[in-house]
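User: structure tokens for Peroxisomal biogenesis factor 11 gamma, please.
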Amino acid sequence: MQNSVESFINALESYRGRDKVIRTLCYGSQLVGGVLAGKNSQSSLGKSLLLFSAQLSQCRTTLRLFDDLSMLAYSTGYGLGASEEDALVRWMSVLNNVADQLYYPCEHIAWAADAELIKTKSDKWWVLSTGLWGISLILNILRSIRSILILKRKAQKRQRSGSAESREEVFSQEAALRRQIQGEVFSILSSLADLGNAIHWMPPGFLWAGRFPPWLVGLMGTTSSLIGLLQMSSGDQGACS
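Assistant: Done. Predicted tokens:
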């Protein structure tokens, strides 16, 4: 119990950890509030939770005003992915970084327009930022699928080679590969959940845009957020929202 509390406090002390906790509370509140409001449209608790969720979402949007430089540092550090063994993984990662980098200024302009700091309509900028987020998620999914195929190929190659390594070393390497594959599977599930919401927030007429009830948006976001917390606790952190 004490270790769990300490881990939670440590998460809150870092920006990324705090953002993931706020994200989980945001979508969790929307999930519960949406369920309560769906059962009873006059539910004061349901309305309050939905309002609380909206305020947390606005909080995260404001905090992301300061994410451009950290994203730029990550992108420039990765460069053209010279350290990647696979060309497809490398170029999908580069395109992913480009989409993430463009996402932030588009969202900032939309935020500034809504706050009446600049004279422009925010709608097109929200659509553009959401579209870039969706592209980033699709690239994440494709990259993870590719990585899983590469990892499975490595495992099969190791089994066929019959190397002279000790049993303990072989077991350790196989366990490491399984953990990597599991991490990629979780990443795919998280990105799919977020992609569902990203399409929901696109303009009406695009696939299922605008058709999700609040509780389903909350469910998708909560699923993705819990996976993000799990990955953070295991030391596997991603670059994007």
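User: Anything notable?

Assistant: Residues 123-161 form the longest helix (39 residues).
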